[in-house]
Each structure stands twice: as structure tokens, then as C-alpha cells.
Amino acid sequence: MTTTLERPSASPERPADLLLSVHDLRTYFHVMDGTVKAVDGVNFSIRRGETLGIVGESGCGKSVTALTIMRLLDMPPAEIPTGSILFEDRDLLTLPDNEMRKIRGNEIAMIFQEPMTSLNPVFTIGHQISEAVRQHLKVSKKEAVDRAIESLRLVGISFPERRVKQYPHEMSGGMRQRVMIAMALSCEPKLLIADEPTTALDVTIQAQILELIKRIQADTGTALMLITHDLGVVAEMVHDVVVMYAGRVVEEGTVDEVLLQPKHPYTEGLLSSIPSKGLRGSRLNVIKGTVPNPFNMPVGCNFQPRCPYAFEPCPEHDPRIEEGGGPPVACWLWKRAPGHDIPQGLHDAQVAAARQAAAAKAGGVSGAVPTELRGEEIAS
Amino acid sequence: MAVEDSQPTRDRAGAPPAHGQRVAEDLLDTDEDPQQVDREVALQSLNQWQLAWRRFRKHRMAFVGLGILIFLVAVVIVVPIFQPFNFLNIPGSPRPGGEPPRLDRIFGTTYEGRDVFTLVANGGRVSLVVGLMSMVIAGSIGVVVGSIAGFMGGMIDNILMRIVDVFFAIPFLFVILVAARFFGRGDVLSLVLIIGLLSWPLIARLVRASFLSLREADFVDAARAVGVSNMRIAFRHILPNALSPVIVACTLLVANAIVLEAFVSFLGFGIRETEVSWGNALANAQEGIRFGNWWWAFFPGMAIALTVLSINFIGDGLRDALDPRSRD
């Protein structure tokens, strides 16, 4: 299991293979009304060349996790009380600012959600890509522009020699996202963080951009951290998935494990709330309730107030994915709560029944869920 | 997307409109005719300033204002070369009413027999220099202070903005009069310094406000994400985007400084008697008015009004031209 925690000191299995490992990362925002625990003890790791998907609904801490890794948050109001982000052998959280600046764009690059506003309107795109190049490589202006042209060609923009002289307002959203990708790739980063790269684009362009990212990743061997709320994109793009809820990782595993046999009730809910064309006219399945108030998180399990299977230990004890061993799910249905047993019999049956119902709703046959997702989510 | 791509910038030179649509297709369009694309792309390479200039030209009043201002500047530069003002040189014999406008001295003369046209042309030099220079001073200080305050935020922002508040709280005119009385030596430079050093807070506030919103812009995060330093982000990425309101404000500052100069000189605190500006020409003209010498006051006054009016129209035109939301 690649996504279970691998401490740098205690990871004899694949030390050379490991690119990024995030351990017990917490990001709090101190605001007027109190403290928001946007990221609250997150663990995951990415190997070289691997694709990790981070899934969850809006406000669950996906983007904040990415921004924390890039150290792009303003430090007050944000605070990182604990945690480490090990990139190769450096802890990004303790790195001095100028060292971090050398990593940004050079070794870790990021693609943002909004291609329309992520390019500076007053400079040509050639200027912007070559600036990114010149921040990290000692090359002449001419060489930087040549490199910009090369990376534009790589992302499938035709006649890049002329496009470099254009301004962002002369380009469509899809084209700008290609430019952003070109900029991110211009220094050949080891890790690419894509924060919902297709959310702002229309569907046909979405598919093209995802295809492009996939192709480039295969060509360059860069690792990809793909943040999305779109399970279809996950099914299509990633090897491993981390499901986040209210700042915590609730489930992790390979894409097949998580999408075909969801363990956590939240993952199950997410999967069952995908509209299906097989069941026209029936009501959409939703997860009842809302995300808990960030200022007032439940004491025990975060998901417990919305969980259909909640039982005695849930409001009291906070389930976490354990380091080393145990099922990779933060739920008392799957592990022993202090003073309680893993529910057998009744609970088990309930779980199984509910899961089957959810799967049936999502894909007709439980085994067909991801296939259905693949076809539909990308096209809708 | 379609809206962005349908800008009129592209349909110049009779390009078939269908080509514009083709550019919007960012598919892997490798099978396009290179020459055709060449032409399409060439049509689009207008940058922001070129676009602004196109919009500015459509603003008729601003364009006329610019023409008048250029004419005034030319007169003010050229005429004094041939007809310099000399305080000690009093041509002809003084006559209480002066000579009314005639063909060979179109603005008439003062009671001392000085040519009013020479006064206006020479006085314009001082007035325009005061206007421009104090704008440069106020603009530079305002941009630097505003950028620092807006970009750094927190404590530094707080301190700088409280200083700005103090400037806004004191009665501007009296401070200028007092400063001109005690620090001014009646020359252009001290007046420029006084006006410039007192009017930067307005610019600083504008720049700070732009910085505060632009600091959160996505492209700033994107620049940071490729490893651009803070200094470079502030002055190379944010500042150019924050500039348009500042340019408009600076234009209006020029007009304001010209009026201020006239006002201060009129009250006798500005440019000394031995030199001439529109303000002290007006002040001296008071002596002529009761003898029916209206032209002595009228022409410098008109010069001020015309200059200020054209600058204000130019400012108006710039506001529209530089506004990124007006995309026509």
C-alpha cells in the first residue's frame, strides 16, 4: 500500500522510490471567529512517476493541502502546528524561504483551477513561461523563449513561435490551461500538483486536458498529485486515491479498491450520489446533512452526524487510519474502537445491504461502477 | 471563451471573420495551412497599450483635449524662445488701461505696455512645469508607499496608512499657503516640492487599494508557484496591473497642481513677482480691471481653464481606455 504512511526513518521498503511523503500534516487558520482546522492530520505519500488522486467535496481541505505543500499560504492567518512534508530528503516545512523558492516551479510545479485568471494579463505568454524558466535555469532570454516554445509545442499548441507573442486575453480557457501546463512543465518538475485542473473548463476541453496531462506524465515520468471532486476523473486518471472529509483522510487505497469496494460510509455515499443514466426518473441519492461547522467539529468521528451506520463509539472516539497495518479506512466499522468490538452480525449485514443498494443505484451491477463512471463523468 | 475571442482587434485588414473562430479551437490543429495561421496570429498581436490607444481615440472629447494640450505645450515651448519675459524690460510708455487686443498683439497689453500674449506663453511654462513635476513627485512617492503598504499588509500597512490619514486630515490649502510662506522662496522648485510632497497620499491610497485586491489574484499565486520572488511579484507582476487608475489619477493631479499654483500665486504666496506664471499674471491683472483692461485677466484665465479642462477630458478618456472591463 503506497498511500499508508511511510516515515522517512522507518521506510526500508522503497526509500529511493519515494518522492513525497506527508506526515500528520495540520493546517489551521486563525480567523476572527476562532480556529478552522482545514487540514487536520493528513498522511499520504507519492512515489516517483505515480499518480495520486485526492478526492473530497468542496471545503474538505484538498486545496489547502496542496497550497501547504507548496507553502503558498500566508502564514498568519494560516498556521502549521504539526506535520512534515518530506520531498526526497528535505522537509519542505522547515526549509528557508529562498530554498523553497528554488523548489517551487523547478521540482514541484502546480496547475491551478482557474486558467482564466491564473495568467498575468499584462504580459505575453512567452514572457510568462520564459520567466518561469529563468527563475531556475541559468539561460539567456533567447534560450528561455526557445524553451517556452518547446513546452508550448509539448502541450499541443500549434505554431508556438507565434503564440508566445500573444497575450492571455487572446486565448480561450482551454488554451490558457494548456499554457499553464506548459509553464508548469517548463522546468521538468519531479512532482506536478494539479488542483482541479479541469473544473473551470467545458467537458470536451476537460477530456482533452486530462488526456494531455496523462500523456505528458507518461512521457516525462513526473509524479502527479491530482486534486478533484470528480470521481470519473479519478477512475480515469489515477493509481491511488486518498478520500478526504473535513480535513482528514477517511479512506485510501488503489483506485479499484476504493471505487469498487468502498469501506468508509462517506466514500460509499459519494459513489452512490453519482447520477446514473440507467435509472432515469428515480431520485438522486444524497449524503444526508451537511459538512460540520468548521468551528465546531464533532468530538469523535467527523462523519458520524451524517453516517447511517453510526453506533456507540462513533461520537466519542476519533477513528484514524493507523500507521502500519489495519484496513486503510478511518471508521469504527472496520477496526476496534476502545472498549468496543468491530460490529458483527447486524451491523455487518446492514453494511453489506446498504453497500449493495448504493452500488446498484450507481451502476446497475455493483461490479460495473467504475466502468459506468468512466463513460459518464467525463462526458457530463 | 467565445466572448473573449470575438474581440474587434482581430477583424482588421479584412480578415475573413471565420478565421477568428478557428483560432478559438485549441484542438491539435496540426493540419492547418501555415500561411493562413501566420496571418491570423499576426492580426492579434496588439498589446494592452495598443488596445487602450484604440479605445482612447474613440473618446472624442479626450482626443480633442489631447490636441488642445499638445497645441498649448507647443506654444509654451516655442513662443518664449522668441519673446522671452523680462521683468526689467518695460516696453513703451505705461497707460492706465493698457492697449486692447489688436492684430499685432492679439491679447493686448498690460498698463505697463507688456504684451499679454508673451505673459501667457511664458507663464504657461511655469504653470505646466509645476503641474507636471509635482505630479511626478506625488506619483513616485504615492506608488512606492502604496505598493509597500498594499503588498506587505499588516503592521507596515497600518503605519503607512495612518500617515496618509494624517495628510488627509489636515486642511490642505492652509498647509500649502503656510509652507509656501515659510519654506517657499518664490521659485518654481519650492512650489513643485510643496505641492508634490502634499498630494502623494491620494495616489498611495489608490495604489494600496489595487494591491490589496491584486495580491489575492490567481496569477500572483501562479507566479509564486513558479518561484518568483516577492520583490519581483510586487513590482513586475502586480504594479503594471495596478497602474491604470494611477495613471488617471496622476493626469488629474496635473490639472489640480496647475490650479493650485494659480491659486497660491494669486494670493501672493507662490511664484515671485519677477517671474511670470498664470497665477501671478492673474493677480497683477486685478490692477487693470477697474480701468477696463479685461484682456489682461481674461487670457491667462482662459489658458488655465482650457488646460485644466483638456487635462480632465484626457483623464476621462484614459479612464475609459484603461478600464479592462470596457472591451469594445
Topology:
The complex is a heterodimer of chains A (about 375) and B (about 325).
Chain A: E1 18-31, E2 34-47, E3 51-55, H1 62-70, E4 78-79, E5 84-87, E6 90-91, H2 97-103, E7 108-111, H3 125-136, H4 141-154, H5 160-163, H6 173-185, E8 191-195, H7 203-220, E9 223-228, H8 231-237, E10 240-245, E11 248-254, H9 255-260, H10 265-272, H11 346-363, H12 369-377
Parallel strand pairs in A: 3-9, 3-10, 7-8, 8-9
Antiparallel strand pairs in A: 1-2, 1-4, 1-5, 5-6, 10-11
Helix pairs in contact in A: 3-4, 3-6, 4-6, 6-7, 8-12, 10-11, 11-12
Chain B: H1 2-5, H2 17-24, H3 34-44, H4 48-58, H5 60-82, H6 116-152, H7 154-169, H8 172-182, H9 188-214, H10 218-225, H11 230-266, H12 278-289, H13 295-322
Helix pairs in contact in B: 4-13, 5-6, 5-13, 6-7, 6-9, 6-11, 6-12, 6-13, 7-9, 8-9, 9-11, 10-11, 11-12, 11-13, 12-13
**Beta content of chain A:** 15-25%
- The level of helicity of chain A is 25-40%
> Strand tally of chain A, please?
11
Order of helices and strands of chain B: HHHHHHHHHHHHH
Number of helices of chain B: 13
Main sheet specs of chain B: none
Q: At the first level of CATH, what is the class of chain B?
A: Mainly Alpha
Structural class of chain A: alpha/beta
Spatial arrangement of strands, main beta sheet of chain A:
7-8-9-3-10-11
Radius of gyration of chain B: 26 Å
Helix content of chain B: over 70%
Distance between the termini of chain A: 32 Å
Q: Supply the helix-strand structural class of chain B.
A: mainly alpha
**CATH architecture descriptor name of chain B:** Orthogonal Bundle
Can you walk me through this structure?
The complex is a heterodimer of chains A (380) and B (328). Chain A is an alpha/beta fold and 380 residues long. Helices cover 33% and strands 18% of the residues of chain A. Chain A is built from 12 helices and 11 strands. Chain B has one domain (64-321): MetI-like fold. Chain B contains 13 helices and no strands. Chain B has helices at 2-5, 17-24, 34-44, 48-58, 60-82, 116-152, 154-169, 172-182, 188-214, 218-225, 230-266, 278-289, 295-322. Chain B starts with a helix and ends in a 6-residue tail after the last helix. The interface between A and B is large, with 49 and 37 residues.
